[in-house]
């Protein structure tokens, strides 16, 4: 199955989960924001929902839960690193040397 088909198959469940969350909790406040935070690059403000990546304060960027160095190690010491990085972001599943084209 192609990556696009795998992602497309996951969309209905994701959309339903988001629709339900907004319907049931749309009025819930998630925090306060100061003018300094707005002009300071929104540091410390949780305002973006993503399950793809985030910046871990201890280890840096994580993609689908993996650190860049973990993806590097999984990809046979850098062999085919960029395709495996792309695979992790697009597919959202474990990256194995045999799973990535």
UniProtKB/TrEMBL annotation:
One of its GO terms (cellular component) is mitochondrial matrix. InterPro entries: Citrate_synth-like_lrg_a-sub, Citrate_synthase, Citrate_synthase_sf. SUPFAM superfamilies: Citrate synthase. GO terms for molecular function: acyltransferase activity, acyl groups converted into alkyl on transfer. GO terms for biological process: carbohydrate metabolic process; tricarboxylic acid cycle. This is Uncharacterized protein.
């Amino acid at each position: 199955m192609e990556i696009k088909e795998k992602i497309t198959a996951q969309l209905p469940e994701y959309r339903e989960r988001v629709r339900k969350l907004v319907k049931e909790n749309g009025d819930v406040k998630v925090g306060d924001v100061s003018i300094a935070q707005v002009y300071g690059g929104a540091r410390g403000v949780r305002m973006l929902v993503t399950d793809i990546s985030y910046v871990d304060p201890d280890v840096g960027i994580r993609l689908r839960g993996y650190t860049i160095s973990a993806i590097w190690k999984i990809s046979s010491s850098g062999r085919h690193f960029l395709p495996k990085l792309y695979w992790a972001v697009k597919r959202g599943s474990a990256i194995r040397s045999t799973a990535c084209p």
